[in-house]
Amino acid sequence: MKHAHHPELGDITLTAVMAALSDPIRVGLVRVLADGRERGWGELRAPVAKSTLSHHLRVLRDAGLTRTRQEGTRCFVLLRQEELQTRFPGLMQAVLDAAEADDVGRQVGVKDGPDAIRFAGRG
User: Fold this and answer.
1) Which residues are 44's β-sheet partners?
2) Prediction pTM value
3) Dist CA 98 CA 17 (whole Å)
4) Rounded to an integer, what distance in angstroms lies between the CA atom of residue 13 and that of residue 19?
């Protein structure tokens, strides 16, 4: 991935954000990233092939939900929470609250430590 495109704040549209959040795996990724920590792609755990996980991360990035950076051969992803709060006040918290209540994305996790995996919303 060379120089990933990230939409400017004013170019992020509600329809693109909502479309990106229409998949439970992507909602789970957002839930995991909502802790504010930048995560290496290798830390993320989902019941899909690596190529499919990469696709989901690209959809989130292209919609403006995440920021991706490359460091050597590793890629890192961060939820653009503050920017999204500025663009769509309250939207991300409402999405996270609804996802928690409905347990959407629970199958997505992050490797936290040598062998521990923490799943979305269970931190």
Assistant:
1) 110
2) 0.90
3) 15
4) 10
Record the tokens describing residue 93, joined without a space: 């918290």
State the pLDDT confidence band at 121, using cuts at 50, 70 and 90: low
Instruction: Kindly write down the DSSP assignment for every residue of the chain, as one continuous string.
Output: --S-----GGG--HHHHHHHTTSHHHHHHHHHHTTS--EEGGGEE-SS-HHHHHHHHHHHHHHTSEEEEEETTEEEEEE-HHHHHHHSTTHHHHHHHHHHHHTTTTT-EEE-SSS-EEETT--
The token duo for 104 is: 């959407």
**Which is nearest to 75 in space by CA: 85, 64, 61?**
61
Domains of the chain in sequence order? 9-119 (1.10.10.10)
Report, as an integer, the average pLDDT of 65-78. Answer: 94
